[in-house]
Amino acid sequence: MPVFRRRKGSLPRLVPEFDDAPLGQVRRRVETCWSRGSLDTAVMALMANVIDDAGEDWDRKAHRLAVLAGSAGRSLPGIWRQHRPEHHGALLLHAWSDLLHARQQDAAVDLDATRETCRLAAELVPADPTPWTLQLALLRLERRPSSELSAIWREIKARDPWNREAHLQALGYLSPDECGSSALVLDLLDGVRSAMPSDAPAAGLELTAYVRSHQRAVAEGGLAAVGAGEIWRRPDAARALDHAAHYWTSPGFLNHAAALADLNLLAYALLKSSRTGEAGAVLRATGGVVAPWPWSLEGDPVERYTHYHGRYASDDPDAGSAGRGGRRR
């Protein structure tokens, strides 16, 4: 699937599916059903096909489920499950929808039932890590003790060692904002840094951790906020940025489903580290596709992306280059 298609003159835009065109077609049909509050059999078949067609690309399957869950509202996944109670995709979409709804304030969701849905899905397709990833997300949501994490993590790693969604869920769980600490985040990064292939779906894990650390410092205010930029001068962060800036924009290097989200992440990190020339090159590689996070940390994602794109990603490849940010690789 082509990741870096560039449409000249294309406007910055939020596209939940990124460059997954079949998923985009189904998403739009699902949103039409959601707006009228009903789900017809043709759209159910489309959802089943787009999930099943991911095959054993578990990363892309998780991406497709996440996008559909975000587009289907609260009722449609339940309707589909009632029609197809033994379809693996219908069970997973229902569980994912439960998680999204449970994160909303005052939402009433039976998480024990969600856990049972995950169990049923795991029995239907034992090789799929997605039910276990959703179990990890449930642990995170309920702030369950870390003693419950290890067994689920082993199940995920045995099925898909570098699953992007699972690693991001683990990072959230282990963060000092949730159930862990900065030391536990560093342990996670140390555990994957040397073993993870540089083009793995979870390749953005380390940069995600640094951006979150930067944001925590900014949010703290005072001296912590003043020194937030020092994060990017640490040797480990600088190495991660050097590697990503050098390789990630190469055509075909990143092939996972959310590659464009990781390019958005990289552009943001480069901007925060004042490497604006490299950030401009990465912004151009996104082709105008905006990922909500991390731009949402500063306000409206499209507005912030557009602001930086206008300053540093003009058609002149040398525009905005200065100092370290202008290095050519």
Textual characterization of the structure:
The chain is an all-alpha fold and 329 residues long. The protein has a domain at 203-329. It is built from 17 helices and 2 strands. It is globular and about 55 Å long.
Quick rundown:
By secondary structure, the protein is mainly α. It has helices spanning 21-36, 41-52, 58-71, 76-83, 88-102, 111-124, 130-142, 149-159, 164-174, 182-193, 205-220, 222-226, 235-247, 259-272, 276-285, 292-295, 301-312, and strands at residues 13-14, 289-290.
- Which series of helices and strands comes N to C? EHHHHHHHHHHHHHHHEHH
Arithmetic mean of pLDDT: 91
Number of strands: 2
Strand order in the largest sheet: 1-2
Q: Radius of gyration, rounded?
A: 20 Å
Portion in helices: 55-70%
Proportion in β-strands: under 5%
Q: What oligomeric state best describes the polypeptide chains here? A: single chain
What kind of sheet is the major sheet? 2 strands, parallel
The helix tally amounts to 17
Q: What is the straight-line distance between the termini?
A: 26 Å
Low-confidence runs = 1-9, 317-329
Per the principal axes of the C-alpha atoms, what is the gross shape?
A: globular
Structural class by secondary-structure content: mainly alpha
Chain-wise SSE layout:
Elements: E1 13-14, H1 21-36, H2 41-52, H3 58-71, H4 76-83, H5 88-102, H6 111-124, H7 130-142, H8 149-159, H9 164-174, H10 182-193, H11 205-220, H12 222-226, H13 235-247, H14 259-272, H15 276-285, E2 289-290, H16 292-295, H17 301-312
Parallel strand pairs: 1-2
Helix pairs in contact: 1-2, 1-3, 2-3, 3-5, 4-5, 5-6, 5-7, 6-7, 7-8, 7-9, 11-14, 14-15, 15-17
